[in-house]
Structures are given as structure tokens and as C-alpha cells.
Amino acid sequence: MQVRAPTNIALIKYWGKADPESNLPLNSSLSLTVDINAFYTETTIEHSSSLEMTLNEASITPTSRMLKVISALSPENSNFKIQSRNNFPTAAGLASSASGLAALTFAVANLVSLEASPEELSKVARLGSGSASRSMFGGLVEWVKGDSHESSYSVQLMNGGFLDELRLLMIVVNSQEKEVGSTQAMNMQSELARERAEYRAPERLQRIKKAFEEHNFEEIANITMEDSDDLHYIAENSEFSVHYMNDTSRKIRDLVKEFNREEVLAAYTFDAGPNAYILTRKTHINTLVRYLLSVLKVKSGEVFTEEPLHNLEELQSTAKYEIEALFEVKVSSTGPVKTN
Ligand code: 2P0
Fold first, then answer.
1. Residue pLDDT, tens place only, 196-241
2. Which residues does ligand 1 sit against, CB inside 6 Å?
3. Is the sign of the CA dihedral 288, 11, 131, 32 positive or negative?
4. Is the pTM of this model over 0.90?
């Protein structure tokens, strides 16, 4: 059996844990599921005589989080051969743990023919990785924080319609492994993170949900940027001072601000790494890409847009800040799917 699971990008971030054992978060979060055709984890699973796992063709020792997922779904038997492959760089801040643990959850549940709703599976995926909980659905997803294993799960708030008009630009600034993983950073709980989780994040969540209902892009964009800035302020000002954004990330943030000078047409958001996601509407994507690529120098051939980009070479002649790749992607309307 083979499954694919998408990744997701949080607009209201999960940052801080109330319970690290079962990944109960300090605050509810909200994300868009990213085009499953662009980025995904593909996992094949079969019965075996022992538990064997590979990730991107290399043999791995299952982590305790993976074991939690497997035993939650199949308490009696964990003898599976599980082969996983990401079609994007692991640990590049592309939330590979989200698609990876969502794929593992979906694969095991399907192999053992477990009749479980996506909500139920989102609880199990959360045991593996918090953000994986949100990858169990397509569209706009809220992970309700809850205060116990049973009450902390994800729900789909919206799919298709307005979301089909949105586009995401994924900019790979650096695909190398990050130095401080988000799990580790989140465990360095600070007063700043607790304040955000208690006051600012819930308030933003209410406002952004309303903005989605009203199709108010400007409000969605402003809240998204506010929450991303908040997360990085907290990480940088915590005891261990983690800087996820580098000079190029900051340049991207400033370019988006500049692009928005007269009207808010795009929003940047950064996770626990230097790479950027930029949210915009389909109508503005070409202007935005051209604007960015006059400053960001991308390796040849690493630009993936829906419409062909004319005169890319000329556009790039003034570009100075090196990036690895730029992908234009849609919002995924689906969570994990069986592919074989
Ligand atoms: C998010 N991130 O909401 C936030 C924003 C990174 C920044 O969830 O420890 O891999 O596995 O629960 O889910 C990345 O952290 O952490 C993450 P664990 P996870 O997407």
C-alpha cells in the first residue's frame, strides 16, 4: 500500500507546548495545506517480520514519536516495512515532519483497516508531530489546542472557493539542515511565548477566521505577517536567541513590505528556518514573482511558475541575493490520499 501526504504552512503558528509528551500545544493554530502535487511525503507500507524503516532510501531507527503513532493505531503489532520519501529537502523548514508523520499515520491506519475519521487520525498524527495534525485535511485547517489527547485535534474550516484564488510562493533560501530544531526551540519556553499563546495568538486566530469568512485578503495578510514577526521576535529574544531568518530572509520580508506599499497584496511567513512562504492572490502572482526575481538571484532552472516567465535572464541581471529555488503552488484541497 502506498500513500501521499501534503505539508502545510501555518498562518497562525504553533509555538510552545503545554505537554511535550503528546504535543498538546500552548495555542490553537491555523494553516493552509500546500499543494500535494508540489510537495509531499510518499510512504509505502507492508507487513513484515520486524519493524524496518527507510527515509529517502536510507535506513533509519524509528524515533519514539514514530513508535507512538504506530502503537496508537496498531497496539498489538508493529512489524511493518515502511519506506518514506520526501520530494523536497528534509529539515529545510518546509515542515517535512508534518507531511512525514501525516503520511505515516495514514499509511498505518489504512494497512490495519482502521475505520477512523480524519479528526481521529489528526490526534494520532499530533503524537508524531504537532504540525502533522493539520496535514490530515486539505484547505484551511484549524488545530484546536484542547487540553487532553481527546480534545486536541484538527478540523477543516474551508475548502475550495476563495482558497482556489490564493497562491503560495515557496522560496528556498537554504535547503541545508537547520541548527536548532523547532521542537528544541519550543521547549525553551519563555514568558514571551506564553504571553503570545495566551493573548495574541487566540486574538489573531479569531480575527483571521473572520477575515477568511469575509474573503478579506488584506486582513488575512496583515495578521499572517504579524504572527510570523511575533514568532521570530520570540525565538530571537528567548534565553538561547535562535535566529532562523538570515539576511536573504530579511530581504524577502522587506521586499514584500515594499510590494505592499500602496495596497496589501501579499504576506510573508517564515517557520523555523530561513525559507519563505508568500501568500498572494492569483491575480497578483506574476507581478510579484517578477518583482522578487529582480532582486533574488535563483539558480538556473529552479523557478517553477504556472505561467511561463518571460525574459527571466534580463530580470535576473540586477538580482543580487541568492536563493536556491522558487515554487508557485496552490492550496491543496485534499489531505493524505492512497496512491496504490
Ligand atoms: C507551525 N512550526 O505551526 C510551527 C511554526 C514551526 C514554526 O509546527 O515538536 O515539527 O514535532 O510538534 O510540528 C514545526 O514544529 O514540532 C512547527 P513537533 P513541529 O507549523
1. 999 999 999 999 999 999 999 999 999 999 999 999 999 999 887 8
2. 10, 13-15, 23, 29, 95, 97, 129-131, 182-183, 271-272
3. negative
4. yes
